[in-house]
Design brief:
The structure is a homodimer of 343-residue chains.
Chain A (H helix, E strand, L loop, with lengths): L2 E4 L11 E6 L3 E7 L5 E8 L5 H19 L9 E6 L3 E2 L4 E2 L13 H9 L3 E5 H12 L7 E7 L3 E7 L2 E2 L33 H4 L1 H13 L5 H7 L6 H9 L3 H22 L6 E5 L10 H17 L2 H6 L1 E4 L6 H16 L1
Parallel strand pairs in A: 2-5, 5-8, 9-12, 12-13
Antiparallel strand pairs in A: 1-4, 2-3, 3-4, 6-7, 9-10, 10-11
């Protein structure tokens, strides 16, 4: 069963309205937002990858019409819909190419499929690009003219927004910030993509786990060992918990992660020079709600300050994202809105 | 005495006309171009840094009016002027901040000064950003929708152009591509800016010289040694000459430079994903006119192909710039033109 929740009421909302769809490997999020990006109706569907893209597109289209109806609106109140999808894509063509988390969905013209099922023009984006736009429009980047979002998790994704425009790249490969090279040597760490020296090979969740295993194998003392012996799974979350409980090694590994991220961020500042950098995704070690999360952010800021040009070190905003898992559909709706207001 | 040269005649030219000014540490280039970027009249002045910015601004303003007059035009045929300057700057404010090659010119409102002296609105840009725009408009990037220019020399500069817009950055520090980090370690090579691991610390002209000195100190055999004994100066140009004459070490050092550049370019592709990358500046080891220059370019392409995602490896154009020292004033004029056509 899809879950639904309401955030603001129609009487408080400001038209026109936009629907954003965030298609992931497990869930599809569909939300109706107003012209200020506030959510009226939201629902989550299961992706059900095995049923294929046509089935999913039909259910997404139906969900778009449902959230409009549940808000007490008619379809003509919504001029446009936005869609973010993961993996490789051809954005101008509206195609998903070969998304790793959607096995078998190759070369899918998803934009046209969703448009057909919901009867609306669809603005198409990379999921991390959509999340970046969400943070830019309504999240922790809402006062910034330009930002880079880094999404921290199994993979390190990102989005670049400058003056209301998403930098998608000529081949729809812009903002693949996990694949910035931070060590040119052949002996550098291996990335999940098979290449060496990429940022993701140091700070993606599997890399954090690997660095922990290496430290334990080196004989480093840590409360992590007892946790693993008791059957816990080695994850960034376990590290955050143990660091919060006072384990020095866990904290060290988290702060090393922050330093590597700082290196990648400096390369981004010296390329894009955004007004701010925003850190989102599942792997923020508790984020601003936790002491360890705040130490993680402080260490990133320290590393950037130590390595960046003085103006950038002093002035570039570095902060956690604030929309959580809502950033994707809000941003997709925001991109549809930006396209609508431009035309 | 300023030098002048004419490229096309007024009868062949297409109005409106724009004047571009490229202010460097030694020379100031001033050129009048038509709406297709073709030069009608060009002149070079000495910068005469010691006489200060007011003196230079007055001479630049006079030169702008001279090139218009020498083309047989009146000032009303030129709606706008473009100016590119080196070093740190505040582009929105029209200020040079602390350009290293213009000693004593601190916090100079150069845009307003030039505008006052020539009576035209002035579009202001970083010199490498202007050169990037020149290559994009009329040079080897003229068929590309987006490009990154790397200027190779003592410093490694750059410019990023996407869909006719220059990515200047929020703090006017965009496209500082020499300061991308390619080695995160504290033991990495030192950059001229004082930080470690930057691309420029491996491929800037002083770094190429340093790597050569290290190889010779390691006892590597090379015809460079005899050249130095005969009083030659160790420069990238000497390396190119010796490599062209068959010296294996000189060629190896040039191709190592290419590999480091390939690493930095991959980080740029995974951030900006431009349609093409263009290599300009004084240190292209002979460029496309020389066998060594072509090997240098081939090795950059190989390194990028080996490290980039398949789509980018196959499709991203990598080539030498084609406008040489004219790129700066042509691009400055082009930015003035773009601003004029937008308004």
């Amino acid at each position: 069963m899809p879950t639904s929740r309401v955030r603001i009421q129609l009487a408080e909302a400001r038209p026109p309205f936009f629907v954003g769809v965030d298609l992931g490997g497990t869930n599809i999020k569909v939300g109706l937002v107003d012209d200020d990006g506030r959510t009226l109706v939201f629902k989550t569907l299961r992706t059900e990858v095995k049923k294929g893209p046509e089935d999913a597109a039909a259910r997404m289209g139906k969900a778009v019409l449902e959230v409009i109806d549940e808000a007490g609106l008619t379809p003509d109140a919504v001029p446009a819909v936005g869609l973010g999808t993961p993996g490789t894509m051809d954005i101008p063509a509206g195609m998903m190419l070969e998304p790793p988390n959607l096995s078998g969905w190759r070369n899918v013209p998803i934009r046209a499929m969703l448009s057909r099922h919901c009867g609306k023009p669809v603005t198409f984006a990379n999921d991390a690009g959509a999340a970046a736009f969400g943070e830019y429009w309504c999240g922790s980047g809402r006062h910034l003219q330009s930002l880079v979002l880094l999404t921290l998790g199994t993979g390190i994704g990102g989005g670049i927004i400058i003056d209301n425009l998403s930098i998608d790249g000529h081949h729809s490969h812009g903002a693949e910030v996990g694949h910035i090279i931070i060590d040119y040597r052949e002996t550098a760490r291996l990335c999940s993509c098979g290449a060496t020296g990429h940022l993701e090979g140091y700070v993606g969740a599997p890399a954090v786990v690997r660095r922990t295993q290496e430290a334990l194998a080196d004989g480093r003392q840590s409360s992590i060992t007892a946790q693993l012996d008791a059957g816990a799974k080695l994850t960034p979350r376990l590290l955050a918990e143990q660091a919060e409980a006072g384990d020095a090694l866990a904290l060290e590994l988290i702060l090393d992660t922050a330093c590597f991220l700082g290196v990648g961020i400096v390369s981004l500042l010296n390329t894009i020079d955004p007004e701010g950098v925003v850190l989102g995704g599942a792997m923020t070690f508790g984020g601003s709600a936790s002491g360890v999360g705040r130490q993680f952010l402080d260490r990133i800021r320290q590393e950037v300050r130590a390595r960046a040009f003085p103006v950038l070190a002093e002035q570039t905003v570095i902060d956690f994202a604030s929309l959580g898992g809502d950033a994707g559909y809000i941003g997709a709706a925001g991109l549809a809105r930006a396209s609508y207001h431009r035309s």
